Amino acid sequence: MKKQKRRANPGASKKRKRASPPAPAAKPRPQPQPAPAAPGLAGFAPPAIDALLDTGRGALAQGDWRAALVAGRDALMAAPDDADALNITGVAAFHLGDRAEALTLFDTALAFHPGHGEALMNRGNVLSDMGQWDAAEAAYRAVLRTDPNHAGARFNLGVLLEVSGKFTEAEAAFRRILARQPDHAEALFHLGNILKALNRLPDALAQYDAALKAQPGHAGAATNRGAVLQETGKPLEARAAYAQALAAEPNNLDARYNLGTLLQETGHAEDAIAEYEAVLTLEPGHAGAQVNIAYALRELGRLEDALEASRKAIALAPDYDKARVNLGDLLLEMRRPEDAVTETAAFLAGHPGNTSALAFQAIALNEAGDRAGAARLLDFERLLKPIEISPPEGFASVADFNAALARHLCAHPSLAYAPASHATRRGRHSGELTIGDKGPVAGLEQTIVAAVEGYRRALPPEPDHPFLAQRPDKLTLSIWGVVMEDRGHQIAHIHPAAWLSGVYYPEIPDVVRDDDPDHQ
Questions:
Q1: Which of 57-71, 337-351, 465-479 has the least mean pLDDT?
Q2: 3-class DSSP state of 241
Q3: What is the full DSSP assignment across 96-136?
């Protein structure tokens, strides 16, 4: 079971297509809401306070954070315990870059008035922005316990769950919003993003279509709709979707970058370069665009220009492994394998154990004639381990387990035919199988964890081996599956994000037999 991210060109480039992230609200931000004062407060606030609060709310609505801060502070001088004044001042302080002050103001509001929903929600927004996701989630859930229909808290909780990878819970949050507001464009957009992340591509497309029906100018939905169409092999429709996004937002980086990758994938390298250059005009530090320019020049046979462009990519992002690996690959094409080895070694000196660089270095060493150096890195005899498994709990035999696993995979809602960003050809490829209803995958998960622990025990760290010296202290597990048809296969690739990979075949065709020496 193997997986790779979107690349503008499958093969040697090893660069990723930038999957459009959740557009304008990748992270929850304080959403000033001109709600009325908390119950019971209005009767105690003198008219001057009411006027200042109205001024503060108006300034927040207009994005005039400084004016909102002044109005909020003036209100607090008259009523230091006014929860609305504390909330307004906190939102303004956050937008002016003072997260600590904002958090203090929200905490103060809640100390005086524990049920103040806006202060509690905005406290969650600040905590989320600070990366304190558990605390932020608790704040949003506290709002929802008091008011289950609080749309802002439900939405921000959904975004938080989405960006923290809790896709099942995030999906439930957005579906609950949509049950009450079917035309909520942002909820539709984020639900589409979640389904896209789960590889449920037709479902994601339906949500993006609904978001665009509710808000035709939603550039994020149009961009991600294009990404799904591109992924499912519909380049003309994808191009139209990117054009729709750019008509709404001509400077939308994701749409323009993705359009570049689409043009490059469909053989229009010159046009792709123009799109990447437009991206760099808008964002000069966009290393992905520069990497893809280098590869497009290489496709055009302009190797010296590609070499110069590759150097620029490395200057933009010295720690970006794909930029350095692509440079090495270009040097191999230019018949300079020793230089490729040198470049990769220089990167590994600062990034020991980097999977992409180690994998490429084995290739480069082999091309340079250093068979021993390549063999030391690959070392199949020692590093590659076949393992016999026992049936997981609940299964009488491995055969029963395999049959259940095959049925589960073949019925999985995330299966997509030969998605463009993966290595599968002439077959269906699933999304993450450890999310949602695991079924027999739960048994496979336990089996893999045990196998990995056994592998680690059998191969302790070795300071002088670049792979074994850099083994991580903690591991996370990702499982996906493929269902191949006749002549189905996977193109050569690596897993750049993985330290260790494995493959398990629950079902194989009859042509693969124990007594066939060609299928050992």
A1: 465-479
A2: helix
A3: TT-HHHHHHHHHHHHHH-TT-HHHHHHHHHHHHHTT-HHHH
* CA–CA dist 213, 363 (Å, integer): 50
Phi, psi of 491, rounded to the nearest 5 degrees: -75, 155
d(CA 161, CA 506): 33
- Map tokens 């923290």 to a residue: 164
**The pLDDT of residue 31:** 45
pLDDT of residue 27: 42
Percent of the chain predicted with pLDDT > 70: 90
Paired sense of beta strands 416-417 and 482-490, if any: unpaired
- Give the H or E element holding residue 417: strand 416-417
Q: Which of 413, 395, 412 is nearest to 404 (CA)?
A: 395
For the chain, what is the domain count? 2
pLDDT of residue 209: 98
Instruction: Give the range of the structural domain holding residue 481, as residue numbers without chain letter.
Output: 382-520
CATH of the domain at 303: 1.25.40.10
Question: Side by side, which strands form the sheet with 482-490?
Answer: 416-417, 424-429, 482-490
If you search the block for the tokens 């978001």, which residue do you land on? 211
Does 163 fall in a domain?
Answer: no
Distances (CA, A) of 403 to 94, 238, 411, 413, 485: 55, 38, 13, 18, 18
Q: Is 179 left (phi over 0), alpha (psi -120 to 50) or beta?
A: alpha
What residues have CB less than 8 Å from 254, skipping those under 6 apart?
18, 20, 21, 23, 220, 223, 245
Q: What is the pLDDT of residue 280?
A: 98
Q: Position 491: which residue type? A: I
